[in-house]
Amino acid sequence: MKRTFLFLLAVLAACGKRGDPHPPVPVIPQATSDLVVTQRGDKVILSWSYPALTTAGQKLGAIRRIIVYRYVETLPVTQAQSDSPVPPIGPQQFTRLGERLDSIEAATIPPATARLMYEDAPQFHTEDGRPVRIDYAVVTEGMRARGALSNIASIVPVDVPAPPAALAATAKPEGVVLEWKAPEKSITGNEKPRIVGYDIYRVTKGQTLEPLARPVNAAPVALTTYTDDPPYGDYEYRVAALAAAGPPRIESDLSAPAAATFKDLLPPPVPAGLTALVETNAVRLVWDPVSAPDLAGYKLYRTEGSGIETLRPIGRIPLTGVITETNFRDTAVNHGISYFYEVTSVDKSGNESAPTKTDWVLVPKTP
Known about the structure:
By secondary structure, the chain is mainly beta. The protein has helices at 2-15, 77-80, 91-97, and strands at residues 36-40, 43-49, 63-74, 99-105, 115-120, 132-142, 153-155, 165-172, 175-181, 197-204, 225-228, 233-244, 250-251, 258-262, 275-279, 282-286, 295-306, 312-318, 327-330, 338-347, 356-357, 361-362.
């Protein structure tokens, strides 16, 4: 019994013993996986999600810097003329060949936002005119550890068209109609630039267009006109000419802006059933109500006739402002004079329908 008791004491003592201290687990930024590259004009723009997580899936704290790497590879001339995507080089080869292009230090990294961006202005050709493929990657450095290399984004930049010219935006009932002139040259002055379509960009008036905002068109616009159907409001539009729809997307610089105010321009339905009933010293008008969710009311007009055998209109005057009733009694008539009447419907945006009118109505001289 004594030995057993001593053995239990030894086991209990061992359970309470502290082990050797372990070093703190390093906070390693999770590698970026959604780096994309776009060419606009003579610039290459990189975009990726703000680093927010660690490799353990926890929230990432402070960032020391983000390093941008680039590798430029000369291509055969025929490669630049191909529409097939250019596959990126492998991570190991990029790590060996890529060069540090720049770093975004913590002081210049904006607060946690949806996307981060970096603009590069590389040479698009070798000195002897051959095309190049440019590969990019980024690495996030935390305060104590460095993340792994991001995905590699590749682009073969080309001589893009000049920006579209003479953009005009006109609000019509069906939407904002945009029209512009196709670029006749590239940014280097070459004739007949490659254009596979156009992208349309829209912002609310007073807002700034993000560098890589989504165009409002779902697919490239083939013509030099486009009708946008936005919510009612004040807008500013720009257009870019596409050299490649991508990915990666390659397009011209944006056109000069064009502004438009889009509001309800569709008139309500024309009133039906307008009838004129001659009374003593008056003409009573009745019509069918118009069904429209934004109907404000109706307006009435009277036209006097002149002539004996053939009447001709000599003057159209408004009888009312906007009224909500579907009847009206005109007491300002003259005996022995013929009139015809018109009624229109008006919506809350001030749009007025076409008129419906009566036949000639004669107010008799003798009641």
